[in-house]
């Protein structure tokens, strides 16, 4: 089989899974974190730097890549792997999440979602079939189905309607798919309603996707709600397929979700926050622009192997931000991605050793979260 999820160990006390997701571009150790390459680049970093953080799989945004440079240009440049210069696996989203966040300019029907390009104003009619066609042209290893995302809070009727439509659209995506070297992941919807989530997970599980995502979370609900829904959804998904929690999140959200059986994550937080001068560490976030770092000679984090920490002081990093130098955001993004990868590596080792609960408790103590 081209795609295979190998379950290596399940943590008996939490439900966390240690596994390997095999793809045509190599294996991904799970739990794992995918850096986000929105427009064909993990902002500010070279592809070697991204690989150097320990990342094995990256994410590309179909919405952005479909508008610019366009799927035919990506295909002409040899597909996403050749265009990025990334030899490992790549996952593309369906474009749905970005489109649905443009609330005032889209029209959703059973057929498609119609929206206006933010680049040139062109009207685009995105059907589930077209989303798959674009992702096949991009040539990612994993394509996400187009789903109907609702902003929360929403009326129960609306959440149910969107969930049921997401199932029908998932089936249309599956029927439209033609590439044998591309996996399709379905997306569980259903808002914060456990019975709807369970129904959606069960129906999608019977359809034979190569992987399953939990979508529509981290959209403003309380973290406890997100954990509750994730924890209620994963037991309904096949144990022999990877589970991906989309767009999550903070370091604590990753660990809480690993304990609820999630295998894959993506989020812009490490890079976006890095660009804005915030570093994640085991002792909580550091705002590097803060005046107290002016003369600080210590690194962001003493044990971190990244370039920012092994070669530079907090005082220098602060100077780069105050002076508006581009190296500041680069080094902070590098540190944050390294931090996320080390966090996941630590989780994998803890699952193997049977000490995940202790690992999570220790991290939370450091972050000051009870
Ligand atoms: Zn570092």
TrEMBL record:
Keywords for the protein's UniProt record, in alphabetical order: Glycosyltransferase, Metal-binding, Queuosine biosynthesis, Transferase, tRNA processing, Zinc
Q: How does it assemble?
A: Homodimer. Within each dimer, one monomer is responsible for RNA recognition and catalysis, while the other monomer binds to the replacement base PreQ1.
Q: Which GO terms describe its molecular function?
A: metal ion binding; tRNA-guanosine(34) queuine transglycosylase activity
The cofactors it requires, by name, are: Zn(2+)
Q: How is the cofactor bound?
A: Binds 1 zinc ion per subunit.
> Which annotated residues bind Zn(2+)?
304, 306, 309, 335
What this protein is called in its record is: Queuine tRNA-ribosyltransferase
Family that this chain belongs to: Belongs to the queuine tRNA-ribosyltransferase family.
* Organism name: Roseiconus nitratireducens
Enzyme class per UniProt: transferase
Q: Give the pathway listed in the UniProt entry for this protein.
A: tRNA modification; tRNA-queuosine biosynthesis
Free-text function comment from the UniProt entry: Catalyzes the base-exchange of a guanine (G) residue with the queuine precursor 7-aminomethyl-7-deazaguanine (PreQ1) at position 34 (anticodon wobble position) in tRNAs with GU(N) anticodons (tRNA-Asp, -Asn, -His and -Tyr). Catalysis occurs through a double-displacement mechanism. The nucleophile active site attacks the C1' of nucleotide 34 to detach the guanine base from the RNA, forming a covalent enzyme-RNA intermediate. The proton acceptor active site deprotonates the incoming PreQ1, allowing a nucleophilic attack on the C1' of the ribose to form the product.
The record's annotation in NCBIfam families points to: Q_tRNA_tgt, tgt_general
Q: What catalytic activity is recorded?
A: 7-aminomethyl-7-carbaguanine + guanosine(34) in tRNA = 7-aminomethyl-7-carbaguanosine(34) in tRNA + guanine
Q: Name one GO biological process term.
A: tRNA queuosine(34) biosynthetic process
Sites binding substrate sit at 93-97, 147, 189, 216
